[in-house]
Design goal:
This protein starts with a helix and ends in a 14-residue tail after the last helix. The chain folds into 2 domains: 336 residues, Hypothetical protein af1432, CATH 1.10.3210; 139 residues, no CATH class. Helix 6 crosses helix 17 and helix 17 crosses helix 21. By secondary structure, it is mainly alpha-helical. Keywords: Hydrolase. One of its GO terms (molecular function) is dGTPase activity.
Length: 522
């Protein structure tokens, strides 16, 4: 009897030891993934890529690198908090787990695909990819990130991507579907589509506005998500992706506001006036017909009322008018009457005020994290409580209303858009010039050959995907050479920093006084 008991105890100990060893092995692999991402030159280049306003304008502003570091910090804090709560830990086991190293790696990687000039560059490259080259899946920063991690970065052992674990690759997939067609049924056809799956209003008929993979990487998506299929729906994020996505929202809501307070763009009077007008006239504004809202958006209070209505239309699963009003009051008290009440003058006191605002809001939002087994299709398994969720919406609205819609920023961005269009056009002409083929930048040469191989493989193995491509060649059929050239040029331009994009166009236009160097091109 004793021997049998000892044997059973020994077996249990052996299983525990084996489990611990497996966990340690996977943890080591996740840390290797994180280190590969952090040491990739694609990560380093984010220091020269716009967050909102070009990094050349002020050393005080966040760039994509500093933003990614802060997202990683917030994401790890969320993962640690979930893992430390017994009830949450039990739910996490049912959903596939939540490893802090995986979350941190995904957060560091999430913006690798952002092109020069941030979201503006993303819009311009998408338009050019679709209209000039017939690439139906266009360009999207999240899809470009996944392409870098699995294909175009060559620092992994196989020199094809970074050879990351399935967990980390799956955690990067914020929108685990292609723009069109995959998976079937496509998430855009759901009664309440997941966030990002709907078509953009400005480009109807083009497919989902957000997606995380091009046709060329769909096999990698399937392989990365295979271990999680029994835990989540085909359109759902993994828990670790949901943590990263929520952390991105938190960081964006807080840190960009700090930037524009620093450089004097966020003015207390203008923000206070909008919030006060809505608060005083909320009931009256709620009765204004929609047709009049569109024509009076510039009047104080109307923009905030339009936000309230949009939230009702899209996020009925969580939106609440009382919570919305409380969020307006809190933002007014802490941002407008608090942080913005004193002009930033570079003093120690001013720096401390920003640090305290950031710390207080980050802690508040992280404490508002909730985990659910059956979330709305508009949410991941990890989200914010209703109170904090509304506060994030208001903070993001302040950023949009008083920063992104400024006329001086629009003027700046129109110039950047023209630069990118001219740059893509010049490169396209160069690549198509047969006599110059062997003189194009070596990296671009290699990307054309890579993309040609990829589209030939798609034509052989999954021709139905290419048939989704808009006619780009003679006879109204897709043209492999055009698709490959377009994807390669987009890859090349997307890998530049803001300054590199300007310098390359100067060289191609004859304005540069020194030859272009490839030494810093990825």
């Amino acid at each position: 009897m004793t021997s049998s008991t000892d044997d059973a105890a020994g077996a249990r100990t052996a299983r525990r030891d084996a489990t611990a060893a497996a966990a340690e092995s996977s943890n080591a692999a996740f840390r290797i993934d994180r280190d590969r991402i952090a040491t990739s030159p694609f990560f380093a280049r984010l220091g020269g890529v716009t967050q909102v306003v070009s990094t050349t304008d002020s050393g005080l502003l966040h760039n994509r690198l500093t933003h990614s570091l802060k997202v990683a910090q917030v994401a790890r804090a969320i993962a640690d908090r979930l893992s430390a709560t017994a009830s949450d830990a039990a739910v996490l086991d049912k959903l596939g787990g939540c490893d802090p190293d995986v979350v941190e790696a995904a957060a560091l990687a999430h913006d690798l695909g952002h092109p020069p000039f941030g979201h503006l560059g993303e819009q311009v490259l998408d338009e050019l990819a679709r209209e000039r080259f017939g690439l139906t899946d266009g360009f999207e920063g999240n899809a470009q990130t996944f392409r870098i991690l699995t294909t175009t970065d060559v620092r992994g052992p196989t020199a094809v991507g970074l050879d990351l674990t399935a967990a980390v690759r799956a955690a990067v997939l914020k929108y685990p579907w292609a723009r069109l067609g995959v998976p079937q049924p496509h998430p855009s056809s759901m009664a309440v589509p997941p966030r990002g799956a709907g078509e953009p209003a400005e480009a109807p008929g083009t497919g989902s506005s957000k997606y995380s993979a091009y046709f060329t990487e769909l096999d990698d998506v399937d392989q990365a998500r295979e271990p999680f299929r029994r835990y989540i729906e085909p359109w759902q994020q993994t828990v670790e992706a949901s943590v990263m996505d929520t952390a991105d929202d938190i960081a964006y809501a807080i840190h960009d506001l700090q930037d524009f307070h620093r450089i004097g763009v966020l003015q207390q009077a203008s923000v206070a006036g909008e919030l006060q007008q809505w608060t005083r006239h909320a009931l009256e504004l709620s009765t204004v017909p929609e047709s009049r809202m569109a024509t009076r958006d510039g009047r104080s209070g109307y923009s905030l009322e339009r936000l309230r209505r949009r939230l009702h239309a899209k996020d009925s699963w969580i939106v609440d008018d009382d919570a919305f009003a409380y969020a307006v009051a809190r933002v007014r008290r802490e941002l407008v009457d608090g942080l913005l009440a004193a002009v930033f003058d570079g003093s120690v006191e001013a720096e401390q005020a920003i640090a305290e605002f950031s710390t207080r809001w980050t802690e508040r939002l992280v404490e508002g994290i909730v985990l659910t087994e059956s979330p709305s299709t508009r949410s991941g398994h990890v989200t914010l409580r209703a109170e904090q969720w509304h506060e994030v919406q208001i903070l993001k609205w302040v950023h949009s209303r008083f920063v992104l819609l400024r006329p001086d920023l629009a003027l700046h961005q129109r110039g950047q858009a023209a630069l990118l269009r001219n740059l893509v056009g010049e490169l396209d002409e160069w690549v198509r010039d047969g006599s110059e083929w062997y003189r194009i930048p070596r990296r671009l040469h290699d990307l054309v050959e890579l993309a040609t191989t990829e589209y030939q493989r798609l034509e052989r193995d999954r021709p139905e995907l290419l048939r989704l491509s808009r006619p780009a060649g003679a006879g109204g059929e897709y043209d492999i050479r055009t698709l490959a050239r377009g994807r390669a040029i987009v890859d090349f331009v997307a890998s530049l920093t803001d300054k590199q994009g300007v310098a390359l166009l100067d060289s191609l236009s004859g304005r540069a006084t020194t030859p272009w160097s490839e030494s810093f091109v990825l």
